[in-house]
């Protein structure tokens, strides 16, 4: 049968399709959810899911517009706690401080609810209806508490105040110390403060639980653990973990683009560059991008060019001395980037980018890796006196 158009699908199927394909095709998923809001009836979860997804992709203005245009749906389809959470998220657009205070109020109220639920659990006998209700209440509040606490911490994270982020996350220790999201964000926060041994203690259990499927784990988690190992002089553990990832990538479906080992090497290379060891760092980054035709992307190029520009700046200020063979390797690498980067855009547009605007961006030669690689190569040659 030919594929049916949106207006031929039942609302529940259309809603579920939108959620299933949000990661692979967010533009189409948003269109489906927006279309559903114009139908009567539509699945009651549609309104809330659309707002949450707008906020997930930082489209706070659109979320605010949907709330304002559909006030009648707000009272009908949003609980008070969900409305407060969305309101705090949207407030970040105009006033991060006000949003922080709103999240503070939300999490404080949730802590009170959690303590009450804990007391009810303690004061009821096991395997009773009252006990099950108390446990259900506790778990439902936890599901609301974790996103609110993480959103509050993210506001401070974006400001670069990592010690304060750690203090915010520590508030959840009493209730969510075994929650994987909490553990992961604590690990990232400690890592950014260069407390590598402590970060190791958080990252290692997360990775050890996925040793049979490392490619199913976020690459940055593995990369940060490798860096933590290296900074703690546990290089053998880092090498062993990287070998495991390499083996998995070799055995993976060749039609799927896997960048785990590439990202790990980029992170390690960036670490060495940040410590002033540009020779080893840049060499590691060039190695990470091999083969270039499979590894070059807007994200990987962003981290490559940061380190290359830092190296050029240090050379211009006579703060670093780098061997000629490494510099020649950089020039050769940039020439290859020019060759393979004609169709690789250096700007990442959001999922709701207008198609015509996206087309205009892609045809702008200055927004390609080829242009930027040629510019960086020219700067390097100028520094070297060519």
TrEMBL record:
Pfam families assigned to the protein according to its UniProt record, in alphabetical order: AMP-binding_C_3 (PF23562)
GO molecular function terms noted in the UniProt entry: intraciliary transport particle B binding
InterPro entries reported in the protein's UniProt record: TPR-like_helical_dom_sf, TT30
Example of a GO cellular component annotation carried by this entry: axonemal microtubule
Subcellular location: Cell projection, Cilium
Entry's Gene Ontology BP terms: intraciliary transport
Recorded superkingdom: Eukaryota
Entry keywords, A to Z: Cell projection, Cilium, Cilium biogenesis/degradation, Repeat, TPR repeat
Cross-referenced PANTHER family: TETRATRICOPEPTIDE REPEAT PROTEIN 30 (PTHR20931:SF0)
Purpose of the protein: Required for polyglutamylation of axonemal tubulin. Plays a role in anterograde intraflagellar transport (IFT), the process by which cilia precursors are transported from the base of the cilium to the site of their incorporation at the tip.
Stated family: Belongs to the TTC30/dfy-1/fleer family.
Name this protein carries in UniProt: Tetratricopeptide repeat protein 30
